[in-house]
Design brief:
The chain has 337 residues and is an alpha/beta fold. The protein is built from 10 helices and 9 strands.
Length: 337
C-alpha cells in the first residue's frame, strides 16, 4: 500500500505598495495573519501566505516606523525600501521582484481590499487556468462620484482608442503567477504601466468577484487630480505606438476637413455667393489646426521622453537597505557633536 499523496499547498506572496499606510497597515496585517496557516478555498484548493512585502515608497507619514514594528512582531512581514518616491506601480514591481511565492497578490494599503478574497481568486485561476486574475468589484468603489466616473471613463477610452480589451478589468487587487510577476518586475522599463506590462506576456486573464470596503477612517486618499492624470497618461504611453497612430488619424481628419472647406469655398464662389473673409471663421480654423499640432507634438514628446529616460538608464525603481540601518540612521542622541 502506498501512502496517498498529500494535496499541494500553494504559497502566496502578498505585495503592498506603501505611501500613506501609518494607520491602516497594522489592521491589514492582522487580517493576513489568519492566512499564514494552511487555508482551504471553497473549491478545496490549499494555500498559505508565506510572506507580506511592504514596498515603502517614501510617503508622507510615519509608515516606515510601522513597517519596522510589524517586522519585529510578525515574522512573515518584510519591508522593501526604495531610495525615493517612485510611484505606486514602480513600488509594486519592486515588491514583486523580491517575492518567492508560487503566486503574487498585490493589494492596496488602505484596507479596501479584503485578503480573504484571495481564496476565490486562486480558485478562479486554477479553474480557468488563468495566469492573471483581477478582482471584479461587485459594489461601487468607496470614492467620490467624480473619481469613479473618471476611472470608468478613462478605462473605456483606453479600450476604445488603444485597442486594449482588458483595460476595463485593470485593478490594483490582482493575483498573478509568481514567476511571471517576477519576470515583469525584472525587465519593465522606466515609466511603464504595470498592467500593460503584464498584458504583453500573460496568455490568459480573467476576473473574480470581490467586495470593496471603505478606506481607513484616518487616511486621506493619496490620489490628487494630477496623480490620477499621470496614471492615465502612463497607461496611454505604455500601450506601444497606438498613441502615435491616433495622432496620425487626427492629422488625416483635420486635413480632410481643410480640403472639404476649400472645395466648399470654391463652389460657393463659382455659384456667385460671396464668402467674406470672416475673422471668426479664420480664428476657429487656426485654433483647431494649432491645437491639433500642439497635441500631436505633446504625444510625440512623451514617447521621446520615455525613450530618452530608458537610453540614459533611468531605473524604474531602486531597492536599498532600511535607511535606519545605514549611515543616515546613525545619529548621536546624547547632544554632543
Amino acid at each position: 500500500m502506498t501512502e496517498p499523496e498529500r494535496p499541494y499547498v500553494h504559497t502566496v506572496s502578498i505585495v503592498v505598495p506603501v505611501y500613506g499606510g501609518e494607520h491602516t497597515l497594522a489592521a491589514l496585517v492582522d487580517e493576513i495573519t489568519d492566512l499564514t496557516s494552511e487555508t482551504i478555498t471553497p473549491d478545496g484548493n490549499r494555500f498559505v501566505v508565506t510572506e507580506t512585502l511592504f514596498a515603502y515608497d517614501n510617503g508622507r507619514d510615519d509608515s516606515a516606523r510601522v513597517i519596522r514594528e510589524l517586522q519585529q512582531s510578525h515574522p512573515f512581514t518584510r519591508g522593501i525600501w526604495l531610495s525615493r518616491n517612485f510611484g505606486q506601480h514602480a513600488a509594486t514591481l519592486a515588491g514583486m521582484s523580491s517575492s518567492v511565492g508560487d503566486w503574487i497578490v498585490t493589494l492596496d494599503e488602505d484596507g479596501q481590499h479584503d485578503p480573504r478574497d484571495i481564496a476565490g481568486m486562486l480558485d478562479t485561476a486554477l479553474r480557468e487556468q488563468a495566469q492573471l486574475v483581477y478582482s471584479d468589484p461587485v459594489n461601487e468603489a468607496p470614492h467620490g462620484f467624480l473619481r469613479n466616473l473618471a476611472s470608468r471613463s478613462a478605462k473605456a477610452l483606453i479600450s476604445l482608442l488603444l485597442g486594449s480589451a482588458n483595460a476595463k478589468d485593470y485593478q490594483s487587487f490582482r493575483l498573478v503567477v509568481g514567476s511571471i510577476g517576477r519576470s515583469v518586475a525584472a525587465y519593465a522599463g522606466n515609466g511603464v504601466y504595470l498592467d500593460v506590462a503584464l498584458s504583453w506576456i500573460v496568455q490568459s486573464t480573467t476576473t473574480s468577484p470581490t467586495t470593496l470596503r471603505r478606506e481607513g477612517s484616518d487616511r486621506q486618499s493619496g490620489y490628487s487630480l494630477r496623480r490620477l492624470f499621470s496614471h492615465f497618461w502612463r497607461l496611454v504611453i505604455s500601450n506601444g505606438t497606438r498613441g502615435l497612430r491616433i495622432v496620425s488619424f487626427l492629422g488625416v481628419l483635420f486635413a480632410a476637413f481643410g480640403v472639404g472647406l476649400t472645395v466648399w469655398v470654391i463652389i460657393a464662389t463659382a455659384a456667385g455667393h460671396q464668402t467674406p473673409p470672416g475673422w471668426a471663421s479664420s480664428t476657429i480654423i487656426v485654433s483647431l489646426t494649432s491645437g491639433t499640432i500642439l497635441f500631436s507634438l505633446g504625444v510625440i514628446a512623451e514617447y521621446i521622453g520615455v525613450a530618452v529616460n530608458m537610453a540614459m538608464g533611468k531605473p524604474l525603481y531602486l531597492i536599498t537597505s532600511d535607511p535606519a540601518d545605514g549611515p543616515l540612521g546613525k545619529v548621536r542622541r546624547d547632544g554632543l557633536r
